[in-house]
Structures are given as C-alpha cells and as structure tokens.
Amino acid sequence: MNHPENITHSQTDQLHIQTDVILQKVVDAWTELQTQQPLVHCITNSVAANYAANILLAAGASPAMIDNPFEAESFASIAAALSINLGTPTSEQMQAMQISAQTVANKNTPWVLDPVGYGPFLKWRSEMVDQLVLLHPTIIRGNASEISALAGNQVESKGVDSAVSSNEVYLQAQALLNHSECVAISGESDFVLSKELHHVIQINGGSFLQPKVTATGCALGALIAAYSAVTTPAIATISAHIHFAIAGKLAFEKASAVGSFNVAFLDEIYQMSANKIWEYSNIQVLSL
C-alpha cells in the first residue's frame, strides 16, 4: 500500500476521479435495487432471520427465508441471489446450504457466503464453510477474525465477534480472491477487495452502536446479496456497505440509545436516496 506522503498530486487526482466513478455506480445500483426489487433467498441464523428480512424489505428487495433441504433446490433456482449465513446452523440448514449453493453455482446466480464463527473451535460449521468455498461464492464477507482465519491465518476470536481490526486483515484476504470474486471485511472501517477493481476500497462511517444491535452484520450480508442481483460483485459489496454506513451515521444523529437507534437505523435504510449517497459517502481508494 502506498503511504500518503508518497502519493503524487496526479495520483491523488486519479483516486478522486475513481471515487466519483465508484459512487456513480453505487447510485446506479441503488436505483436498480428499487426498480427490480430482486428476490433474495436467505439461509441465515435464528437470531438474524427477522432482522435481515426487515432490512431487505426496507432497502427495496424481496426476502425469502427458505432454509430447509426439501425446498432449497426449487427456490434457489428462481431466486435472483442467495445469502448463506452460518450463525446458528442446524443439520437441516447445513443440507439446505449445500443444495442451494450448488444450485446457484450451476445457474451462475450470485451468492454471498458469511462464515460466521469460522475458526478452530467450531469445527463442524467451519468444515461446512470449507466445502462451500469450493463452490466459489461470488462474495465472501465477514469480520476480521473470520476472514483472517478463512484466509489461513488463525487468530483469537471472542465467540463470533472479531478480536482483530479490519485494517490488519485486508492484505491477508487477497488469498480468498482465488475462490471468490470479492471479499469484504467489516469493522470500524470496512474494506472491500475484488478481482474487478485494482484497489482496496475503504468505507468509513456508520456508528459504534451498530455492533450493539443483534444481526446487523448478518443483515449486511443479505443486503450485499440483494445488490449483487442488480450490479457487479464489487459494486454490490461497496453499495451495501455504503448503504449501511450512511444509515448508521444518520440514525445516530437522531438517536443515541440502542433501542431508538435500532428503529432509526431501519428507517434510514428505507429512506436512502441518491442525494444521500453523494452527500454522505465516505470512501477511500487504497493502492495495494
């Protein structure tokens, strides 16, 4: 990565131009999300299902929480995108994940893998993640601990929460691009790596209260899936993170306690606009 003092004025101008191009694509993706209202097949955890569904509805997508193996293939075959989250896996969910992932892989439908809790202490789910990675998820997203572990660097984690920062991990995460089109790392700042773009995109914003609300990270994965139905993997991932970052920032300006923030955040997801994307987006284009 270039250090700021080593970046020339021409490079700085170029990065600003790239930022404007990216934001225009994000605005276009948000517009398409409202227009197409894609059907998103979600296999997610019991803690997150209701919240993720509400986030998708507020954002303009159409969620379906189909997580049993008897319906997985037929529904995955008609969905515009798939989101798989391993937060609280059951035996039947595990079967449904395999069936759905194989189905969308065969149809070239975009899908998101959220390897919640991946690491040496939760071997059953981690082995399933390893199998799913072989099916080449379109996008892999997780916190820094999960992504670091999945990239082959074992780190300490506290349950499913991250014990390392996202900016410590994004260079390690490049290895996952051998298995996926795009990788996203959530944290105080979010980082997006992709085959499509030749830079790392850092997304800033949000609120420190977002991790205090159960299932925000899980819902982010579902929103990435929704965006992936209407645009490229990299822009979909950036768009969902910007959507969340702006909603978190504006919600905190209205509500500074957890309960009221939760309601305000959902409202801001719903009230997103092209003008807000241009006004409040805070992204940086980082050179590798």
UniProtKB/TrEMBL annotation:
Keywords: ATP-binding, Kinase, Magnesium, Metal-binding, Nucleotide-binding, Thiamine biosynthesis, Transferase
Molecular functions (GO terms): ATP binding; hydroxyethylthiazole kinase activity; magnesium ion binding
Keyword Protein transport: no
Cofactor(s) demanded: Mg(2+)
Residues at which substrate binds: M65, A215
InterPro entries associated with the record: Hyethyz_kinase (IPR000417), Ribokinase-like (IPR029056)
Enzyme Commission code(s) on record: 2.7.1.50
GO biological process, one term: thiamine diphosphate biosynthetic process
Residues holding ATP: R141, S186
Bilayer-spanning residue ranges: none
Reactions the enzyme catalyzes: 5-(2-hydroxyethyl)-4-methylthiazole + ATP = 4-methyl-5-(2-phosphooxyethyl)-thiazole + ADP + H(+)
Pathway of action: Cofactor biosynthesis; thiamine diphosphate biosynthesis; 4-methyl-5-(2-phosphoethyl)-thiazole from 5-(2-hydroxyethyl)-4-methylthiazole: step 1/1
Family: Belongs to the Thz kinase family.
Purpose of the protein: Catalyzes the phosphorylation of the hydroxyl group of 4-methyl-5-beta-hydroxyethylthiazole (THZ).
Name the UniProt record assigns to this protein: Hydroxyethylthiazole kinase
The encoding gene: thiM
